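Lecture notes, part 5. Sequence design as translation. It can be helpful to think of inverse folding as translation between two languages: the language of shapes and the language of residues. The source text, in structure tokens, appears below.
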């Protein structure tokens, strides 16, 4: 589903140029649950930004569903991101004055759905993530793990083809981190493709495939049973 060919990302230019991704070749298939691991500064977030089209590579190619993404204009890329991708970040980025249900429904309303349709989708996403009974809670009334699960519900409510997560457990204690990982595993079992970046081994081992990055190179790629 996602493929990169000789993917290079260099920040800056001239003497200050820093090549963060050094010709990466990678293929991620439908339904995979992949963890991208490596120490801080390895280039994990940079890789995620390239394959999720949030940023443009310096050279090389990225294919999404066999479409070379370099051939897409900005509007087409934005549309692809909105409709086919979901994003979870380290900070849950929930709006504090909105309930869990409203937080999940808001992006769907902004995409043009009716309120009724958006709330129905939001409720079903919260249900899928085991947060159905917390619909009316404000973020401040939820634990960190619960808030992150609301942000996962928001990321999957439009049934994206792939869910990207950048350090989704970094702000959580291990109990809450486990809850979030269980949510990812449930989604994976129901067929969701997931690409998660983490520097924490204990969470990476839940994924079915671990890609290790070091100094912008892939130094490991293992599938777990
Ligand atoms: P990771 O997510 O693995 O910690 P990053 O992809 O964030 O690593 O960063 C990899 C390297 O690229 C780091 O050395 C970082 O300082 C550098 N870097 C990241 N973003 C930028 C940027 N926008 N401009 C310049 N350097 C950057
Ligand atoms: Mg990072």
């Amino acid at each position: 589903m996602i493929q990169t060919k000789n993917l290079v990302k260099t920040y800056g230019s001239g003497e200050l140029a820093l090549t963060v991704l050094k010709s990466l070749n990678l293929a991620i298939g439908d339904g995979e649950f992949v963890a991208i691991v490596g120490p801080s500064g390895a280039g994990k977030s940079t890789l995620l930004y390239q394959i999720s089209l949030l940023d443009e590579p310096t050279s090389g190619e990225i294919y999404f569903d066999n479409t070379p993404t370099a051939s897409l204009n900005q509007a087409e890329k934005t549309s692809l991101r909105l409709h086919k991708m979901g994003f979870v970040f380290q900070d849950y980025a929930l709006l504090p004055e909105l309930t869990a249900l409203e937080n999940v429904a808001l992006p769907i309303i902004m995409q043009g759905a009716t309120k009724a349709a958006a709330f129905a989708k939001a409720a079903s996403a919260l249900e899928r993530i085991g947060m159905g009974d917390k619909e009316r809670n404000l973020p401040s009334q939820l634990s960190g793990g619960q808030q992150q699960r609301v942000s996962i519900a928001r990321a999957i409510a439009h049934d994206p083809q792939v869910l990207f997560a950048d350090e989704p457990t970094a702000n959580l204690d291990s109990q809450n981190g486990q809850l979030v990982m269980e949510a990812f595993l449930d989604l994976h079992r129901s067929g969701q493709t997931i690409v998660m970046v983490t520097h924490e081994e204990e969470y990476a081992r839940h994924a079915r495939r671990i890609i290790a990055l070091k100094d912008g190179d892939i130094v490991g790629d293992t599938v777990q049973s």
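The translated text above is only one of many valid answers, since several sequences can fold into similar shapes. The chain has a mean pLDDT of 95.
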